[in-house]
Amino acid sequence: MTEQAKTLTSNPGTEKARVIVCAGTPCVSAGALDIYEEFEERLSAVDLPAEVVLEDEKVENEGLSLDLTGCPGFCEQGPLVRIDPVGILYTNVTVEDVETIIDKTLAQGEVIEDLCYEDVSGQRVLRENEISFYSSQKRLVLDNCGYIRPDSLGDYRRAGGLKALQKVLAEMTPEQVCDQILASNLRGRGGAGYPTGQKWKFTLSQQAEEKFIVANCDEGDPGAFMDRSLIEGDPYRVLEGMIIGAYAVGASQGFVYIRIEYPLAIKRLEKAVENLREQGFLGKNILDSGLDLDIDIRRGAGAFVCGEETALLHSIEGKRGMPRPRPPYPSQSGLWDRPTVINNVETLANVPDIINRGADWYSDIGTENSPGTKVFALAGDVVNTGLVEVPMGISLEEVVNEIGGGVPGGKKLKAVQTGGPAGGCIPADELDVKVDFESLAEKGSIMGSGGMIVMDEETCMVDLAKYFIEFSREESCGKCTPCREGNTRLLEILERITRGAGKEEDIDLLRRLSELEQKASLCGLGQAAPNPVVSTLDYFEEEYRRHIEEQECPAGACRYLVTYLIEADPCVGCGACARVCPVDCISGESQEPHEIDQNECIKCGQCYEVCNFEAVLRK
Amino acid sequence: MSCCSEEYTLKEKIVEKLQDFRGRDRSDSYLIPALQIVQEEYGYLSRQHLDEVARLLSVPYARVTGVASFYQFFNFQPAGEYEIIICTGTACHVRGAGAVFDRFLEELGVEPEEPTEDGKFSVTDARCVGACSKAPVVIIEEKVYSHVAPDDVPDILADFGYSP
Ligand SMILES: Cc1cc2nc3c(=O)[nH]c(=O)nc-3n(C[C@H](O)[C@H](O)[C@H](O)COP(=O)(O)O)c2cc1C
Ligand code: FES
To answer: Are B90 and A298 a contacting pair at CB < 8 A?
Structure first.
């Protein structure tokens, strides 16, 4: 770090500064609110030109202000605190650090190196935009996340928000809006990638006394949090896209369907709807355009299948969330049998930019058939977990290694899972695959809604397939037989394989059963549920065989197939393992090497975890 | 519409809220929001609750139970005073949530969802609580534990006054 960089302002303590505390779910869970309170309390006690601002619309542009923002995505390093306008980013901040930050950075303009992000090479990186996690991304949808206060309509408008809506209502016909979205070739971000413009046009062409628009924020893929972060960080963008959509298709009532597990996002959304209503952007005759629209927020109740559009519509109607066959498509007959357009929230969040900057600008980003960007929730065995937005067509390798910083702990990458329970995995040697709808499908996975789980060599692929099938089995609504029975049988087979009781013919059986379920199921849940099995079989059949033929789990993950052994040399006889063993099957004299009675061992692995001398081996 | 709280055991503010739903267009579409409000107040849905929701919204009792039983959010027996929620989303699974879950059951000697004898603890799983970067994640009473290993379990339980 240069001398110059160490001092931020020529005039410490007087230049206006903003302290921005990330208030996304991961940072809150790591104590962000306590940090915020500590700042508030301490700032009010010191003699800095300090102003503590909590509420929206009361922002003063002078002095020092303190804000809570939505998730900037760098969750692994949270809680995050950014000092603007200089853009210094502090990571892993604790309540104890607050005093130092005030004394040094705010009062004297000094950077606290210890709180800056340390990159792989051990260098401290000062500013957010210099961290490779951010610099390889292209943020359109997430542009405002972390930079504006999510509750503040004023902040959103200062960042250019609502311009698109005003333009649409003043200058464009519904047909023109549909045409522009069609020309941009925006494709649905909820998983299937259906062209949004076509869907809108079709809905517009329907004659009906009433139409609806629904935003899908059910986000059921376990291990995905893109939509949540988007709504927590920039709720108005989604709502603006939705109002534009309503105008384009002629809808007079909108619903946002959001998981009940997302309390913070729900709160932000409610506040945003209320503010829009107050300011005349929702309600009757919006901006004198003749458009009437209100938006109602409906919370899900913990059923994955309700992310499927027809099931979701049933749920809004107050029924069991059972899917139904299509056609008719919701755009012909949806809520209460009226034409209903349903879009994922990230899809909608792309709309304002396309209106403002044009279809050509948009289709230049990404690839020809998959224009634009995609937001991913990067998680699992990767250094920088968090929210990333990348142009379509970027290689998976760049996402995992450059943005994600690779696999931690010197372990080897095994595979990357995309698309959750409906997706598949890409093995390490195919990592140069492009991230777009077609390329991922060619490799037997899917883009999905954006979950991306990195797995190291200690992840067992049979266990992974079992995990997803268990998920799909629990979430199957039970209406159609191929899905209900198919998942149960698949799980049975996978379970016996992971217990070492697999049979020679099981691999073939898994394949045939999968194919049948894919072809014969009623809705997307069953049609896609076997994908994780098929994809792991395609790439890791050998691993299945080792389980079946040699009762061995190469990754050392399948509990029944591992053996724990104590190596005599490193064992100092401290007895720690014997004390934690729940079945008392470890014996040995004090200071002498211990031994595990293999007949009694229940393979709980506690001895392995507790040993400080690496004397317990897992095989 | 008559309101007499003697007819209902639900708290008056809830009765009022449900009557408000009843007065709206397509009122049966508020069945799920109504059940959510009741569950959030009482922590579970009793037969009596379901019956009163049915009457207040004028929806058949069979449909109320049918809907309530379909969605995982609803439960029909009270949870423990402290509900231990272990995230078993993919990120948490890959990082070992299963072993953490088993360890909680083992320490407390219970089955999933079944409260301990003194009614103090129950163990349940949740799908991705949205904090994958902190996986595996355990939540008790809004307190979030990150990067939990099975060996942390006794200490976590001790935070809530549990001793074996
Ligand atoms: C089992 C299942 C679960 C789904 N879950 C979601 C979800 O959580 N969020 C979502 O936007 N779409 C989900 N979808 C896709 C929706 O059915 C629908 O295609 C999508 O909301 C359309 O919006 P889009 O065109 O903007 O992508 C799911 C589909 C299936 C079959
Ligand atoms: S998988 Fe556990 S928080 Fe996301």
So the answer is: no
Closest ligand 2 atom number to CA of residue B90 = 1
Check whether residue A173 and residue A204 sit in a common domain: yes
Q: List the single residue in B28, B91, B144 with the smallest CB-CB distance to A380.
A: B91
Instruction: Residue A419: give its domain's CATH number.
Output: 3.10.20.600
Q: Rounded distance, CA B120 to CA B133, Å?
A: 29
Measured between CA atoms, how close is A85 to chain B, in angstroms? 27
Contacts of A604 in chain B (CB under 8 A): 99, 102
Pocket test for ligand 1, best of A258, A305, A308 (most atoms within 8 A of CB): A308
The CA-based angle A360-A363-A369, given to 5 degrees, is 145
For the whole model, what pTM was predicted?
0.86
* pLDDT at A339 (0 to 100): 98
Instruction: Please indicate, yes or no, whether residues A449 and A574 belong to a single structural domain of this protein.
Output: no
Label the pairing between strands A124-125 and A117-118. antiparallel
Q: What is the pLDDT of residue A431?
A: 95
pLDDT averaged over chain A? Answer: 88
The residue-averaged pLDDT of A504-532 equals 96
Kindly list the residues from chain A whose CB atom is less than 8 angstroms away from the CB atom of residue B66: 320
Integer angstrom CA distances of residue A193 from A249, A374, B134: 19, 11, 30
User: Where is the domain boundary, A76, A109, A135?
Assistant: A135
Residue of the nearest CA to atom 29 in ligand 1? Answer: A308
* For B67, nearest residue in chain A (alpha carbons): A320
**A313 Cα to the center of ligand 1, angstroms:** 12
Task: Report yes or no on A558 lying in a domain.
Answer: no
Pair (A299, A444) in one structural domain: no
**The domain containing residue A103 runs over which residues?**
3-135
pLDDT higher than 50, residue A11: no
- Given the candidates 3.40.630.180, 1.10.10.10, 3.40.30.10, 3.20.20.70, the CATH classification of the domain at B82-158 is 3.40.30.10
| A141 within domain boundaries | no
CATH number at residue A280: 3.40.50.11540
Per the CB < 8 A criterion, the answer to whether A533 and A465 are in contact is yes
Question: Which residue in the set A222, A260, A303 is minimally distant from B89, CB to CB?
Answer: A222
Q: Does residue A333 sit in the same domain as residue A216?
A: yes
Count of domains in chain A? 5
Tokens of B115: 């409260």
Measure Cα distances from B116 to B106, B108, B140 in Å: 12, 7, 15
Return the CATH number of B3-70, one of 1.10.10, 1.20.1070, 1.25.40, 1.10.20.
1.10.10
Q: What is the pLDDT of residue A390?
A: 95
Residue A309 lies in a domain: yes
Helices (H) and strands (E) in chain B, counts: 7, 4
Pairing of strands B143-145, B138-140: antiparallel
Phi, psi at A594, each rounded to 5°: -95, 170
3-state secondary structure of A358: coil
Beta strands at A586-587 and A595-596: parallel, antiparallel or unpaired:
antiparallel
Q: State which of A312, A338, A363 marks the end of a domain.
A: A363
Nearest to B72 among A302, A320, A420 (CB): A302
Q: ipTM higher than 0.90?
A: no
Q: What's the gap in Å between B148 CA and the centre of ligand 1? A: 32
- Tokens standing for A431? 């990592």
Please check whether residues A176 and A214 belong to one and the same domain.
yes
Distance in Å, CA A362 to ligand 2 centroid:
32
What is the per-residue burial (b if ≥16 Cβ within 10 Å, else e) of A99-115?
eebbeebbeebbbbeeb
pLDDT of residue A77: 80
Q: A617: CA distance to ligand 2 center in Å?
A: 29
Q: Which residue of A has its CA nearest to B40?
A: A260
Residues A349 and A474 placed together within one structural domain of the fold: no
DSSP single-letter state for residue B7: G
The reply to whether A127 and A160 lie within a common domain is no
